[in-house]
Structures are given as C-alpha cells and as structure tokens.
User: Fold these one by one.
Assistant:
Number 1:
Amino acid sequence: MIKVEKLTKRFGGFTAVDGIDFEVQKGEIVGFLGPNGAGKSTTMRMLSGFLPPTSGRAEVAGFDVFADSLHAREHIGYMPENVPLYTDMRVSEFLRYRAALKGIPGRRLTERVGDVLELCGLKDVEKKLIGNLSKGYRQRVGLADAMSHEPDLLILDEPTIGLDPNQIRLVRDLIRNLRRHHTILLSTHILPEVEMLCSRVIIINKGRIEALDTPQNLRAHLGQAGYILFDAVVSDARTAASTLRTLESVQSVSHRADGDWTVFTIHAAPGMDPRESLSVSLEQVFAEVTGAEEN
C-alpha cells in the first residue's frame, strides 16, 4: 500500500527527513513513533502529497505520490495534527461541503455523509456547530472528513493530541474498528497507543528511522534499562505520581510538564517489570483524579 524510498526533505540547511525507507502492507495499522520534531508530520505531509520532497520517492496504491498526485490522493485520507475545521458550520453541513469538494456525486454524497457520521459516532451532534464541540468530537469530525471519499489508506497525524485519556480511549476504539476496511499509518509519540493499535511500529528520530519492529519487541527493548516513559494529560500531576508510586512494581516516579502533557519517568523496583500494567494505570489514575467524561 505504501512504499517509501530514500525520502528526504530539507528546509534550507536543516534536514527534517533524511533518506528514509519503509513499506506498509494492505490492511496493516502501522505506528509512526517519535518525539516532537522527529520528522513524523513532515513525512506524513509528503506521503499525502501536500509537501514535495527534496529527493526520494513514495508510492501509495501503486501511484507515485508526486508524479501522479491526483490518482494517489484518491486513495489517501489525511488527518493532519491540527485539523482545519470551520467552526461556524454544523457537523453534517461541513462534511457535505468537504465531500462535494472531493467530487463525490449528489446521491452518493448524502449516503456517504450518513455513513461517516454513523461510523465516527457523530449522529447525536450532526446538527451542532463545530465550534461548540469538545476537542474529542472535533477530532472525530476530522476523521470523518478523511474517510468521506472511502480511501484505501488513512494517514492520521497525532489523532489523539490534546485529548484526555477518556477521549483518547474513544478515538482509539474508533481507529481499531476502521482496520477492517482501511490501511492505517498512525503517527504518535505515545507508546501505549501504538501497543494497543498497531501490528508494527516505525521509530523515527532526528529525521532517520531508528527501528521498525513489532510493539512487543519495541517494548522489550525500551524496558531493558529499567526505566519507562509515559505521557499523559492529568489535572494533578503530583496526585497521579503518588498513585503510581503505590504500585508494587514501581520504585520511584518523577514528572515534568511538556505543554498540556505531563511526562512521567518511572523506575522499576528491583526484579520487577511494570510495563504490563502501566499503560492502563495512567488512564486509571486520570479517571480517579478527575472523574472526567467527554461531552
């Protein structure tokens, strides 16, 4: 479905993506994992045809993304990190407008908008103004837009960015259900997210691919040093850290702010391995601390 060869992007003297190679097979969900600034979004913009490369090539569904962009884009649904939505439009109105721009004919357009509203859990809010929706619902609108023309490939750039763990869980379940009909390339910097969704993971850092492996193998490598890193959105980081310290497998916990996120560094107790439980523990901690629900 995706074939990338020596793909490179430079901005002046800065190399954002440095000669990467990888393939994604039809029906896979592949995680694209890396820290902020690693080159994830730049790669996805190139794969979606929105940003020309400096060199190298990429194919989607057998079409060269740059030499045959129009045909390639027919097979691509792209959800950028910051979804561009018209906040003064109603959900169904926006999706109809976007579907018309993509050339979906009238009768099929109405049917397809109804389908994506149902698939993305938007039927209850289809008459609401987008500007009045929660962040979680706005992300679902962006995903519905990406799906409206029935693409073979969905490219999702940080689809859960800025969401609390309750909202993340809902979007994650939605993505999991889409795997039956779509190949998915999913960008994130959250390891538990790719563990739960992806069959393979690409790790990119400083524009270069550092590893391509299964989540299980990746997890084992990351845990060898006895330290685990997790990102989460919590209203009270100190309380969350205190709760994590009560786990038998945890020796110590430190944390620091990273924008809206809190990065927790967890040191495993001697002879213990907390990796099996911690990805769930942070969501449980959030629920206990905030009791938040999406609305």
Note: DSSP finds ten helices and 13 strands in the chain.
Number 2:
Amino acid sequence: MIAKQFLITGIIMAVIAMCLSILFRIQLAWPDKSFPLLETFLGKWAEGGRIKPDFYLALVTIHGTIMVFFVLTAGLSGTFSNLLIPLQLGARDMASPFLNMLSYWFFFSACVIMMSSFFIQTGPASAGWTIYPPLSALPTAISGSGLGMTLWLISMVLFVASSLMGGINYVSTILNMRTKGMDLWKMPLTIWAFFLTAVLGILSFPVLVAGVVLLIFDRSFGTSFYLSDIVMGTQVLPNEGGSPILWQHLFWFLGHPEVYIVIMPAMGLSSEIMSVNARKPIFGYHAMIYSLIGITILSFIVWGHHMFVTGMNPLLGGVFMITTLIIAVPSAVKTFNWLATLWRGNIRFTPAMLFAIGLVSFFISGGLTGIFLGNASLDINLHDTYFVVAHFHLVMGSAAIFGMLAGVYHYFPKMFGRLMSNKLGYLHFWITFACAYLVFFPLHFLGLDGVPRRYYAFTEFEFMQKWVTVNVLVTWSAIVAALAQVAFLFNFFYSIFKGKVSSQNPWEANTLEWTTPVERLHGNWPGEIPTVYRWPYDYSKPGAEQDFIPQTVPFSQTMSSNMPHDFEGNAESERIQKEWEALEATKETKLD
C-alpha cells in the first residue's frame, strides 16, 4: 500500500513539475508575446499575459526541486523499494512498517509545504534548485527570498527526514530479513541497487540538513556562515566572515551522490527488466554488483567538479577531475553489460523493455557529454550554460524517468493485479523518446555557443538571437511530450479499474515476487515463505524444459540443465549432481 502511495504522490508531483516546465518554456520561446490565459491562471505573476522575471526564476527553482527530490528520489525509490524489497527477498513486510508509514507522511508533508508557497504573497523560492546564497540567505534580496524560501527549507528538512527513515528501513530489511537460501549473491540487481542507494542517502542527506540549518541561522538569527561583505543597493550589510562557497561544498557533497541516488534504482530496475524480456541471464552479474559498489564509493569524492569555476586550487581541481573521469569506468561496465545482455537475445519488446532500452540510450548520450564537463579546462567554458542543462536532463532526468516508467509498466500487475494497455504503452514510449531528444539534444549547441541557463529571455543579447528558432522547436517538442503523458495517465488509471486481469507470473520471471498471489494479502505469502536455491537469472538454459527457472526450483529438479558453477559450495547439491551424472553415464554405457 505504501508503495502505491509513493507512486501516486510521485505521479502528481511529476505532473505539476511538467506544467511548470511548459510555462517557462513558453516564456523562452515567445518572450514578446502575451497569453491572456496565463494571467487568468497565474494572476499577478503574469500580468498582461507575460510571466514576470522573478516568477520565471521561481518556476525553474520549484520544477528542479520537485523533479530531483520528490519525483526521482522519493517517487522512484519510495515506490519500488517498498514494493520489491520484501517481495524479492522473501519477507513478510519491511523491518519497521511504522517507520515506513512515517517516511511516507513526512514526504507527503514536504510536498504540501513546498506547493503551499505558490499561495503566499511573495511567491515560491527563487534561487535555482541549488538555492545558492546570497539570494537564499537574505530574506529581502528578491520576492522569492522571503517566506517562500523559508517554506522551501522546511520542506527539505521534512523530505530528508523521510529519506533517512526510509533508507534505514531498507538497509535493515535487506540485511536481516532474507528468506532461507537468499544469500547476498542470490539477490536480484534491483535489491543491490536499492541497498546501495539507501546507504548513499543515509551518509549524504544529513550533510544537506546541516547546510540548511546554517542557512536558517543566517536568515533568521544574524549569523554569517554564507554571507560576507554584501552590499544591497547603497546599504552595506554587517555580515562578515562567511562564504557562499561553503554552501556549495555542503550542497554538492549531497548533490553528486544524489545523482546516483536517482539513477541507481532505475539501473537496477532496467537490469531486471532487460534480463526478463531478453530471455537471457544478465551479463556479468558480479561485475554489475561491483560496478554499483564502485559508483557508490566514488560518488563521495567527485562533488568538486561542480565547483571548478569557484576559484578552486588547480591541484584540487585536478584531483576532482581524475576521480570524475574514473567514475565513468563502472558506469561503462554497466552499459556494456546491458548491451551484452541484449545481444542475440530472444527479445520481447514490451513497453517496459522499450523504456529500459531507452534508459541505456539516454545514459550513453548523456554520459558522453559528462566527460566534457568532468574536464576542468572545458568546464570553465561550459559551466552554467545550456550544455549542462542538456547533459543532466539526459543522463539523470530522462534516463531515471525512463527507468521509473519501465518499472511502472513491468510491476503494474504486481501492484494492481491488472495489465496496462500495450498499444498505449508503445504510443507513450515512442513519442516521449523522440521528444526527449528533440528537447534536450539541441541545447548542447546553445551551450557550446555560450548561452547561459536560467536567463529570462533570449532577446537581450545579439549572439543569442540566432537560437530563437531552436527554442521554439524545443518548446513545441516539450508540449508534445507533455501531451504524450496524457496517454500514460489515462492508461495507468484506466487499467487500475478496467485493465485485463493479470496472471500470477505474466512475464515468466524467476524472482520471488511472482510466486505471491495476484490478490495482495497481508504477509505476502499465504503459507510458508519459499526457499531460494539459485540466482535470479536462469533464463534460456540449455537442457531446461522452459526458458526460465524460478529461484524456488531446487537443482535436484533440473538435473539436465545444471552446470558446475550453479551450486559451487553447496555440498548437498554437488552430491546429487554427481550421482545423477554417474547414473547418466551408466545409462550411456548400457546403450553402447
């Protein structure tokens, strides 16, 4: 139930964020035009039918905050961790259902508080989703620095509390509540991804809270952690001794692990979905796990690449550049293993499979541009341009969203007992996939030309005016992509009530969640929890009767398809296999 709550809330927040993005895309495409409808809905924030500059910055700020934290963190991890961890591990429930409930309601409260800032006189927070001082530290700097910023900070404290409660619960469940036979090397890659994501969150989110508390002190109690030598108009402020760079260090110490908190669950889901639908074992299972561990460790020592232009010591910049480029290695391992899994597979192109393949596409195209930004000398020119916007919207935004959508299509039968429409799923995928590239790929060229991000209009500078037509194309593509989500929303909610009733294991998968009844019940299994005997990716095994062998099938029942490495270290299985091989050899001798 809690997984459904996270999912529905995440979908609602995603729709809100999508609407905000359409509003500021309209402003960028047609900055000189008036749209009376905007004034009707937005009131004073769009007087005369044109969005005001300070509200434009608020739209960008809240859009980024919602997508990064509320949709791609809580919506993605909260949904699938709560759904799959107990089911794939063979547990009756999470370690602490009460903590689970608190986690959701803290998240929901954070969403409500964030959205309430649209209904106050000064409007929502306006400092970009990274909330850099001094705009965020001075309550009177601009309209969005007032109460809206305070609500943003309160909302984020609640969100972090939710994430920590969830993360502790996930780690406890994975380490302590696995069923008989389920050792770490028999866990699906989804569980490994959720586990390491939870570890990342537990270690990095408290740093953001520390930064937020210091920011609240600067705003409300006259301290100067982030402020020094500030002049507002003709007034010299008394703040001394602080530095806005301190906020950047604290924020990005969370901010870069946050990239992997967002993408790793999507990677785990896509790995599972690709193996199931390619009817092949995942290529390099152990390498995939070690690459996740490598990403988890390295993500804590690369945050400085966001700060190459802050006056960083060149030696330190070189260290961050090297660690940033090294983290591409485990990412490349995962990419090549996905491609090897697909190679010569008996692929079923379900909507879930298409979205999983889409993740690989975006991860490759967005990851390649990350190599440019990881190079300090190149980043100095590309920093804070649309090149950065294009990069992270592909590698983090689009890739993670596609992984999340793949999970929704694949696990919809497990959540609701029904199937979504494949036809609407295909329509949703192809339009969204094409439009995502039409929206974000052209932005690379704007960035290479030095066009800064977050600017209110492209008509203020002569060199930007040649990109006006491109902006119109990008905006129309974004509008079409938004319309494609209507097909998904209809498919999702219609299928909950009217979709075709699902069988117990509609995808013929091996993992434990497909051994539970279609009708969800308390405790997940009606009787004894199944025992696990094998890894989760025994697909298309030579000699097997079917092209899948569930984890609950003992090796003694699949003698003709067993291989020596299947049961290494299991003395009983080795003994049974040797006896069977001896019996087969005796039969062959008699025939001769």
Note: The first strand starts at residue 231 and ends at 232.
